[in-house]
Specification:
Layout: H1 4-9, H2 14-51, H3 62-95, H4 110-115, H5 123-129
Helix pairs in contact: 2-3
Length: about 130
């Protein structure tokens, strides 16, 4: 192999790049809407919490509200992380490094990008992280 730029240019065609960009943009919008909805839900949980007794242990709805709030918090955190990954991928598209592993600088397989367009790591490097 001769160089990073050479390896990178053979990976993805312009048409594939456009398709992946569109997929990322659509996923970004869906994720943004999900974050909005979850943020509203969190506000509703806080309102419900203020309007109900504070003793979850003896309130039949207490554990349910706590569980639902905990789930929403986890989903909100995951969604925010996903949005960060999408924005980073869009940034890599802009500067021309999209499809290149951010760790080893090798190509990320097209199949991986089609399934996970926000991927920043090739499958080998991603396996090392886990």
């Amino acid at each position: 192999m001769t160089g990073i730029a050479e390896r990178h240019t053979t990976a993805i065609t312009s048409r594939q790049r456009t398709s992946l960009r569109n997929h990322l943009a659509g996923d970004r919008e869906q994720t943004r809407l999900l974050i909005e909805r979850l943020t509203e839900e969190m506000g509703a949980f806080l309102t419900a919490r203020r309007d109900s007794p504070t003793d979850d242990e003896h309130d039949p709805e207490g554990p349910t509200l706590a569980f639902e709030r905990s789930q929403s918090q986890a989903m909100l955190a995951q969604s925010r992380q996903h949005l960060t990954e999408i924005d980073a991928a869009l940034g890599r598209l802009e500067i021309g490094t999209y499809g290149m592993c951010t760790t080893c600088h090798g190509e990320i397989a097209l199949g991986r990008l089609q399934v996970r367009p926000q991927a920043a790591l090739c499958i080998v490097c991603a396996g090392r992280v886990r």
